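From the methods appendix. Each design record in this collection lists the tokenized structure first, followed by the designed amino acid sequence. Records were kept in a plain field format so they could be parsed without special tools. The example shown here is representative of the layout used throughout.

RECORD:
FOLD TOKENS (228 positions):
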């Protein structure tokens, strides 16, 4: 049977991390859940440990990408076959994990597809998602349906071969672009669109970071192209 681990980056999520862990553990068991306490000041790590999961701790906040990278590194060392990533604020419904697992026979990466519309999400998120999704689709030649959703299932082999030094939200875009260009397949499963009236943590600087990742990918392609 395939071994599946969950990677959950968490920053000041003491109010929700217990519920997230409980609901994920009902599917994957607590011993297969890895929470990265990214410099939280509200006891997030304490709550996570009380729920019996494995906790990695950053003494100061390093960013979502750095947290995911650390979790992935630890999980790969323990020879799991699949890694599912989800957020700590209940915007990703753990009960939908089986949707991802059911698609695992067909793709190397499975990404949650939310309802992307001005009526389904905040306007700034809608515009940001539409633009980045179009750009990544154009860059990779693969129809990407939701480029910013962090609810993802990866075959471990993908993250053994593809790495990113990005520390923030650009990590997810960087990994996706590199993986698809390397020939890994990507599929999408519909998931609920949940915001819980929470304030978006995506800022203008994150859009600039995406631009840097995207331009870096284009420049790397030009350098590797033969001169004719």
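DESIGN:
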């Amino acid at each position: 049977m395939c071994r599946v681990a969950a990677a959950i980056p968490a920053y000041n999520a003491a109010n929700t991390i217990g519920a997230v862990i409980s609901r994920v553990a009902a599917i994957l068991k607590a011993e297969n859940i890895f929470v990265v306490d990214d410099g939280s000041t509200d006891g997030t790590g304490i709550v996570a440990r009380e729920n019996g999961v494995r906790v990695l701790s950053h003494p100061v906040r390093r960013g979502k990408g750095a947290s995911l990278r650390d979790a992935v590194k630890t999980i790969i060392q323990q020879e799991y076959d699949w890694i599912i990533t989800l957020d700590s604020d209940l915007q990703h419904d753990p009960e939908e994990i089986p949707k991802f697992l059911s698609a695992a026979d067909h793709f190397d990466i499975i990404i949650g597809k939310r309802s992307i519309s001005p009526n389904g999400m905040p306007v700034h998120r809608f515009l940001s998602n539409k633009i980045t999704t179009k750009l990544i689709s154009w860059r990779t030649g693969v129809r990407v349906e939701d480029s910013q959703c962090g609810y993802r299932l990866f075959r471990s082999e993908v993250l053994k071969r593809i790495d990113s030094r990005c520390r923030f939200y650009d990590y997810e875009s960087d990994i996706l672009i590199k993986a698809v260009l390397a020939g890994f397949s990507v599929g999408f499963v519909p998931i609920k669109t949940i915001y819980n009236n929470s304030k978006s943590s995506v800022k203008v600087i994150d859009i600039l970071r995406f631009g840097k990742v995207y331009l870096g990918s284009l420049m790397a392609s030009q350098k590797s192209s033969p001169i004719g």
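APPENDIX NOTE: Residues 4-223 form a domain with the Spore Coat Polysaccharide Biosynthesis Protein SpsA; Chain A fold (CATH 3.90.550.10).
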